[in-house]
Amino acid sequence: MTQITDPQSGESIYDPTCGSGGILLSSVLHLKERGKEYRNLKLSGQELNLITSAIARINMFMHNVDGFLIVQGDTLDNPQILENDELKQFDVIMANPPYSVKRWNQKKWMNDPFGRNIWGTPPQGCADYAFQQHIMKSLRPNTGRSVVLWPHGVLFRDAESNIRKRMIEEDYVDAVIGLGKNLFYNSSMESCLLVCRMNKPKERKGKIIFIDAKEELRIERTNAWLEPPHIKKIADAYWKFKDDEGFAKVMNNTEVLENYGNLSLQLYVKQANNSIEHDTGKLIEDIKAGQKQISASLENLFTELKNIGIEV
User: Fold this and answer.
1) Which residue of 9, 28, 93, 102 is most buried, as measured by CB atoms within 10 A?
2) DSSP readout, 180-232?
3) How do residues 284-299 score in pLDDT, each as one tens digit?
4) Measuring CA to CA, which residue among 192, 124, 205, 196 is closest to residue 167?
5) How far apart are alpha carbons 267 and 244 in whole angstroms?
6) pLDDT tens-digit map of 140-177
7) pTM of the shown model
8) 2-267 adopts what CATH topology?
9) What is the CA radius of gyration of the chain?
């Protein structure tokens, strides 16, 4: 996530479902590894669980982070990181929201006082695009960029197709990155990264890159993880923004909208065909020749059986 959003010194970073603060701290480590100033980062996060939010604060202190704000509460129902009574906006947002939340205040969202209902109201049984719209509303207009870890359902579910179409039409979707299985404890599910930018660079405008990185992982028994070479390959593909057969494909927004805004990777990244191609006509001739050989062999067998007195 940090290699894709590439946080810079002095920028503001936000995680609306921050847990124990791991994603926020990754931006600090990202700058440290590059020898850049990290102490002027402005880190903010909100977490529903009281104890987990306390652990996040402790984590910040333990890593000598001074410029942070961690608050406790329900991000959808009661966002608390505000500025002038409106949602505070950030340069970078990285998040791993809870998937398919069913118990959320959909009715209140329809008339959201913070204007987060940008493109529509998600279904009651799945709040994924409520979180996504909250994230989009919390991005700065010029520098804002986000990457969110989601299940693949956000890419194609019919109930949310209009929201996806609006995001694509307004040119906010920058990349879709498919990840491999078993990256979560006690779950074999595959996930994806949805990357958005408020103001894309000129060469990326009107386009989306799809990266199928499900094979980029190390698996041992039921555990899997991304190693540095895997992460580098994925990040390099994102920044190069070029086609790579069987791995990455750049598509125009109009082509994606022709698929009704479906962002499923398999529609765009075609796997290399390693199977042997056959000449159909020759294959039919070979089958017929084989059938003739079988018929001739059977006739010979019947003749030999008759010669020894066995009627067939």
Assistant:
1) 93
2) -SS-BTTB---EEEEEEESS--GGGTTEEEEEE-TT-SEEETTEEE--HHHHH
3) 666 666 666 666 666 7
4) 196
5) 15
6) 999 999 999 999 999 999 999 999 999 999 999 999 99
7) 0.86
8) Rossmann fold (3.40.50)
9) 27
